[in-house]
Every structure is written in structure tokens, then in C-alpha cells.
Design brief:
By secondary structure, this protein is an alpha+beta fold. The protein is 23% helix and 27% strand. The longest helix has 18 residues.
Amino acid sequence: MKTPKDAPRASLLNYPRPSVAVDTAVLTVAGGSLCVLLVRRGEGHQHGKWALPGSFLRERERLADAVLRSLREKAGISGRVPRQLHVFDDPARDDRGWVLSVAHVDVVPLAGLEDALTSDGVRLAAVSGEPELIAGLPYGHAEMVAKAVESVRAAYAEAPDPGALLDEPFTLKELRDLHEVVAGRALMRDTFRRFMEPQLAGTGQMSDGTRGRPSRLWVRADNSSAPRPRGRRISVVSFHP
């Protein structure tokens, strides 16, 4: 049945609407641990508590612009391109009202966070080493951190250092050490080498041997052209103590 052209249209104001927020889990490796960046909340709700950098979406603002604005204003981070992670829409996640959050994730080398970390209101928290702090984050941020870690670990199980945390060139041992920190587990050396080596390009150079014997140096290859093993992920043998 067709609606007459002159029939009144329902206004969007007739429908309940949630507020929309963005929150970003910025992950890095520091001190031998996978860490997430937290900011101390200022005046207002949850004053003084640590949380992920985030913000409410402003009128006519794009999500990506809100993410970049919140990172710049809350954490002093710029020049990044976080990716969307997941929409968290539990109506009870924020006790101020109905707020859904479009969570984002970014993996940033520690050197890229040095300026941000000079602020007393910005810190890193080890995702496994500080469980009480992570669990106590407001607005469901603990769940966001867990989802971000899961996503990053899945990416690192498939490709060599996709977040470019290591400076190039690097040895296979340095690469495996990094992947073990991200995974939170020890990785089988030979399986790791067989899986990752086809996705790397040798430089033809050797390390200087200042830490252990000289080893071949590698850079990340173009994954679109590098052959890759199929059907297997990197095997895990045990947790680090």
C-alpha cells in the first residue's frame, strides 16, 4: 500500500536515540609487556580515574575525526590512523545514560608515545601485569581492552610484526621475542621461523653480534607477493612465567 505524498512523515525526534562515543585502545610493547595507554579523567564524571582516551561524537562529526580529536586532546597523540574494532552497545555500560561506543584500536611503537607519556595524566598499563587496574576501568573499557588485545594477537599470529613495533632490519630472534610478548606465550622456534620467513625479505647483512652470535637481518616483505603457509597458525607451547 502506497503512502500518499502529502502524508506526514515521522520525525526522527519521535525515536529514542543513544549518545555516541568513541574510545581507542592504543597498544604498544614496553618493559617486556604488552601495554595499553590510559589517560586520567579530568573534571566531571569519574574524575581522576584511569580510562581509555575517548570522546562523545560532536554534531555532524565523523567517527574517524572524533577518534583523532580525542587522541590529540586527551593523550597528545597525533598522526595515527586507528581502525574500528567493535561497537559496544550495552545500555548499562555508562551510568550517565544510554551511550554506545565505537571502539578503535591502534598499535604504536613505544618511541611514538614518548611525548604523550611525559604528561602526568597519561600512562601505560600492562594488560596482563595489572589486572586490577584494567578490570576497574570505567564505561566497559576493560572489555574493549580485551577485544583489542584479541584482535592484535590474531594479527600477529598471521604476519610478522604487522604493527611495525620493531625497527628494521631485525633478526628472527628479535622478531620472535616481540611476537612472544604480544602473544603472552612462548612460541615454538622452528615453527615460527617456517611460518614467518616466507613473509620476510633478507637484507644480505648480518647483525653485529653484540647480543649473541651474528644472525641474518630481515625486513618485512610485501605480504601481497610473499608466499605464505596455509592452514596453520604459530603453535603455542607455554605461558611465560
